From TrEMBL:
The keyword Flavoprotein does not apply. Residues 223-454 form the Radical SAM core domain. PANTHER family: ANAEROBIC MAGNESIUM-PROTOPORPHYRIN IX MONOMETHYL ESTER CYCLASE-RELATED (PTHR43409), SLR0320 PROTEIN (PTHR43409:SF16). It comes from Candidatus Jettenia caeni. Residues 1-167 form the B12-binding domain. Pfam families: B12-binding, Radical_SAM. This is Uncharacterized protein. The keyword S-adenosyl-L-methionine applies. Its cofactor is [4Fe-4S] cluster.
Length: 508
């Protein structure tokens, strides 16, 4: 079966950088190809000439996104049908994150306009959380896969292949309804009724998955060596942050073997010349002993690379950070969220201000560049709370700091709290996705984002904090620390140095 996997456009509509390649789709691609299917990976959000990079100001561009989705002359929208014509897929799989939902719907409609008999399959975080809403909102989507997709997608595609075989033999389409009912995590229609099968099974042995299929990416030459270095060493998160939807993957953390990870690193190192790798694990240092063993394995294998990861402030210590630094870790990203102890407790972050301050000291002592992520606009947050956030920024002095306005994502406890308090709707209509900007999704009143201040007061406060963060990041010391952390990469690949300079000027 010929399958086209698509990451729908979003950042491209307002000419922003979108780093890396679609990792989830590439795992699907390698799984399907291993089973004998023909797969093409179309990263429709890959921007070959981006300019914007200030993600703190990203919501300012959302109106452009909504406007261009409705513009049939937009070159991105005109490009998509040409890809269909070139590859003539039997099925199209589309990954859906909540901010990209409208774009995913648009791509689905373009598929059906190209060929009404081409199957459209949605997957990804938003599809997992809102399968019923999706099937109710549009007939352009035939199937929705909930949760981890490799096994369910392969089973579904094999079933659809059987149906098409019967059609090509002149016997009419094979009745696949009985087979569909056995696919875990699958949602579909039976007449006018939406069917939701039992929750998908998780893959315990992640080593059984083939490496992500980077080779099938359209425009492979447009990606940098650093883009190719995206890795996933584990799946799952045991924490309870109430703003995060990763809890849908259950609290169990599943790990790839270190041998398997090192094999992929060696392959990408040799195939693409990658020297900077990025681990996408929710919290890379959950298993302390495993991280120390990984650092030893890198040294023993004589692999000279840099790498970065995400973790939590309560999952680091001096010995661990020194070992990571020695093994090539040059950047760590952590979620701080707020400088208010009350807000940290409200969002179930499970950390304290004291622990945040202690970890910031440990990062500096280890000499590892670190990024701190903050949020504002959390329900019940006051101006005093945001003042504490700004004070904390100046006290802990991260190498880079980012702040974003909280956006209510379905499947989170904060979302449920918002529904109960009357701030949010449980569902959206198809039209809502094309008339609202993503930061306004599910809000009952787009001019009432928070319950402690007026829309006008919040807008002023948001602008003040974002300006403060931007000014902080522009400091010479912060820029120097960033360049120093990436110096090995620049020596080995000067092109990335000049690319970073271009990004810097786009940011400022």
């Amino acid at each position: 079966m010929k399958i086209l996997l698509i990451d729908p456009p979003f950042y491209r509509f307002f000419n922003y950088y979108n780093r890396y390649f679609p990792l989830g789709l590439s795992y699907l691609s390698s799984t399907l190809k291993k089973a004998g299917h023909q797969v093409t990976l179309y990263d429709a959000d890959c921007n070959v000439s981006p300019k914007g990079i200030d993600y703190t100001r990203l919501p300012d561009k959302y109106h452009t996104y909504v406007k261009e989705l409705k513009n049939p002359e937009n070159p991105i929208i005109k490009e998509i049908p040409r890809v269909f014509e070139k590859f003539q897929p039997d099925a199209v799989g589309i990954t859906v994150m909540t901010p990209k939902a409208a774009s995913a719907f648009l791509v689905a409609s373009l598929v059906k306009r190209y060929n009404k008999n081409c199957y459209v399959i949605f997957g990804g975080p938003h599809a997992t959380l809102k399968a019923d809403e999706i099937l109710k909102n549009t007939r352009d989507v035939d199937f929705v896969i909930n949760g981890e997709g490799e096994t369910s997608m392969l089973e579904l595609v094999n079933i659809l292949s059987t149906a098409d075989t019967g059609s090509h033999a002149g016997n009419g389409k094979t009745d696949i309804s009985p087979a569909l009912s056995n696919v875990y995590g699958l949602s579909y229609r039976d007449g006018n009724k939406n069917i939701h099968n039992a929750t998908g099974r998780f893959i315990d042995n992640l080593d059984c998955l083939p490496f992500p299929d980077r080779e099938s990416l359209l425009g492979l030459h447009t990606y940098t060596s650093e883009d190719m270095g995206l890795l996933m060493g584990s799946r799952g998160c045991p924490y309870n942050c109430s703003y995060c939807a990763t809890q849908i993957w259950t609290k169990k953390v599943r790990y790839r073997s270190l041998t398997n990870i090192l094999e992929e690193i060696k392959y990408v190192y040799q195939r693409y010349g990658t020297r900077q790798f990025t681990f996408k694990d929710d919290s890379f240092t959950i298993h302390r002993k495993r991280v120390l063993e990984f650092c030893d394995c890198l040294s023993d294998a004589g692999i000279k690379i840099n790498w970065d990861c995400n973790t939590r402030v309560d999952l680091v210590d001096s010995e661990l950070l020194k070992a990571m630094k020695k093994a090539g870790c040059n950047s760590i990203k952590v979620g701080i969220e707020s400088g208010s102890e009350r807000i940290l407790k409200l969002i179930d972050k499970g950390i304290t201000l004291e622990r945040i301050k202690e970890s910031s000291r440990l990062f500096r002592e280890a000499g590892i560049h670190w990024t701190a992520y903050f949020m504002m606009g959390i329900p019940t947050e006051t101006k005093e709370d945001t003042k504490h956030t700004l004070d904390l920024l100046y006290e802990i002095k991260p190498g880079f700091a980012s702040i974003g306005v909280y956006e209510p994502f379905p499947g989170t406890r904060l979302f449920d709290i918002g529904v109960e308090s009357g701030l949010l709707n449980k569902e959206m209509s198809y039209e809502d996705f094309f008339t609202r900007i993503p930061s306004g999704y599910y809000l009952k009143d787009v001019n009432r984002r928070i319950d402690t201040m007026s829309h006008e007061d919040f807008a002023v406060l948001e602008n003040e904090l974002k300006n403060a963060f931007h000014h902080y990041n522009k400091g010479f010391i912060r820029i120097f620390e960033r360049v120093k952390a990436r110096s090995y990469l620049y020596v080995n690949n000067p092109g990335i140095f000049f690319n970073d300079i271009e990004k810097f000027f786009g940011w400022i």
